[in-house]
Amino acid sequence: MPYPKGHKLKVRNKIVESAAKAFRTNGIHDVSVPFIMKGAGLTHGGFYSHFDNKEQLVAEACQYATSDTIALLQSIADQELQNPKINTVIDYYLSPYHRDKTEMGCILPALSSEISRSSEEVRQVFTHELERMIAFISNLAEIDLSKGSALFSTMVGSLVLARSVHDLERSDSLLSAGKQYAKALVMT
To answer: What distances in angstroms separate CA 41 from CA 9, 38, 47, 160, 173, one per listed residue?
Structure first.
């Protein structure tokens, strides 16, 4: 009996979602195809009927996760009625919740250190997704792309460092300093 129409696409989407979660949490190189497939509730034997290789999956997971993050940040901004929407996004992005929930967080800081050693295809997709995120942040803040690049770089750098230190108090202070500087950057 054949699968219903759209079944293969649904399975592929489950794999991409599983990969995005795994890459956000563990990076690219520490995540195996069998681990991703298990996270999708599938056996690893079917992977190659959906993807040519792991690099293709990394590229699609970056696209999926960036879209997911932009949608989340937009919904957070849309709930703000009084303060500048960008401040609400900065507060969320540089929050202990976002720092600690890596499996749901922005994939760009999670993979930045590994991307330079990835294939040209993955680096192109990552660059495109970074540009998409900078455009989103710039539009939300009503600033030009140059300033938006500096703002998002500040946000990513603060988050990466906050996730890297073992001292929770120091981590919180990095988030706080990042928030303060990011908001000041928007105002100048």
So the answer is: 15, 5, 12, 30, 39
Residue 177 CB-density burial (10 A; 0-12 exposed, 13-18 middle, 19+ buried): middle
| pLDDT tens sequence across 107-153 | 999 999 899 889 999 999 999 999 999 999 999 999 999 999 999 99
Are 31 and 47 in contact, with CB atoms under 8 Å apart?
A: no
Question: What are the residues whose beta carbons fall under 8 Å from the beta carbon of 85, sequence distance 6 or more?
Answer: 77, 78, 140
Model pTM?
Answer: 0.90
- 135 and 122 Cβ atoms separated by less than 8 Å: no
Which among 111, 176, 110, 184 is positioned nearest to 151, based on CA atoms? 184
Tokens representing 15 are: 């794999």
Work out the burial of residue 13: count CB atoms within 10 Å of its CB; fewer than 13 is exposed, 13-18 middle, 19 or more buried: middle
